[in-house]
Every structure is written in C-alpha cells, then in structure tokens.
Amino acid sequence: MALPHKEIVFPELAVTGDDGADGWEDGRWQDIAGSGGMSRYRRQPGDHAAHVAAIQAEWHRVAAEYEANPDGFYESYYYLDGHPAFWHFREGGDERPATHVTRLEPGDGLRACVYIMVVRVCPATERIEDDEQQNTATRVWFELGKHSWPPDDGTWHDWLLDGGAQTYEGAIIKAARAVWEAYGNDRRIADSEEYGSEETLPVVQA
C-alpha cells in the first residue's frame, strides 16, 4: 500500500566558485548524479548550482518511488542509500566550504550509516542465547542513524530504529520504513534538538 507523501526540505549546500571564475577554464571533469546514476561531463559556469538541482531532483524521484511502493526491495534499497539524513562530505585540502556540493556524498548511506549483521538466534526468544544449541534461526539485524552535518561528528546510532528480519531484503525494507516513519524524507527531524537530545546517542566513527 502506498504511503502518503512527506514534504522535503533540503539543507543548504554551498556553491561558491560557481560564477565562471578561476578554474573553470581548465576543462576539468565533474561527476554528477542523474536519473541513470553518475555521469561525467566538462564543468561549465553555473554547474555547481545545476549539480545541487540534479541531486535534489533525484531525491524527489527516489522518495516518490519509495512512497508509491514501500514494500519493494529495490525502492527501499535506494531510499536508504540516498536519504538526506545519511548525506556526508568528503574532506579536501582546498578552500571550499565543508558543505560545498562538490564534497557531498549523496548516495552512500548504506555503506556509511546502515550496519547490517547476520546472526543466529533462538526462534522462541528472537535473542542470541548463551546456549548456542538453541540458536538455530538465521536473522538479519540492522542498526542505523544519521550522519552529522558539518562540523562532522560522524554517525549516530539511533537505537529506536534498530530492527531485523529473516532475510536481507526484508531487513532493508524494514529499515527504510523505520527511517521514513521516524525522519520523513529529509534531515529536519533527525537534526532537531528535540529528537536528538534524549532519544539517540552519538557514536563517532574512527
């Protein structure tokens, strides 16, 4: 059954150096997200703003497809992977701001912020018992949480969203629904003081 649409408000991304000055004439190539994945092209003046628009349009598409089919493995997978709560930034040695769009990793959520583990549990308790002979049922557990917006404090373990399923596909579907239920389609709830001050604990990744 389709889900109601939740509003999307994007965090601000820096687009400095987008005026055609200094460096645009050297013909460097840029990766940019699109409906078919990542593509490469020569940068032109105004491309930073176009890059932001493309990333936002892609997330609108992914979120709409997920809300239309929230029980689909494909839709759930890409919803988790691209969710703005999991966006993070590459570090660099130049003077671009920490939130510059060229540093952004908008489709890396599953690797960076979703931890999947395969375990054997006791089917009667759904727990890993000390007596290993009782642990005969395979389960796929997940933990996840937002990636902080710069200044970068790493990822958070939002224990309220912990869960699991009997299969990897089922775990991805349940994890995506947990994110949609708790955060919606953007970062505003995950980043709010009301949500993060008591319910979640930060875990900084090395």
How much helicity do the residues have?
25-40%
Question: How many separate helices?
Answer: 6
Order of helices and strands: EEHHEEHEEEEHHHE
Cα shape: elongated
Structural class designation: alpha+beta
- Largest sheet, spatial ordering of strands: 5-6-8
- Taking the alpha carbons of the first and last residues, their distance comes to 40 Å
Uncertain segments are 197-206
Task: Compile the SSE list and pairings.
Blueprint lengths: L28 E6 L2 E6 L4 H22 L4 H10 L5 E2 L14 E2 L3 H5 E8 L15 E8 L11 E2 L5 E3 L2 H16 L4 H4 L1 H4 L4 E2 L4
Antiparallel strand pairs: 1-2, 3-4, 5-6, 6-8, 7-9
Helix pairs in contact: 1-2, 2-4
What do you see in this structure?
The chain is an alpha+beta fold. It has one domain (24-202). Helices cover 30% and strands 19% of the residues. The protein is built from 6 helices and 9 strands, in the order ββααββαββββαααβ. The protein has helices at residues 47-68, 73-82, 109-113, 168-183, 188-191, 193-196, and strands spanning 29-34, 37-42, 88-89, 104-105, 114-121, 137-144, 156-157, 163-165, 201-202. The strands form 4 sheets. It has a 3-stranded antiparallel sheet. A two-stranded antiparallel sheet has the order 1-2. α1 runs antiparallel to α2 and α2 packs across α4 (168-183). The longest helix has 22 residues, at 47-68.
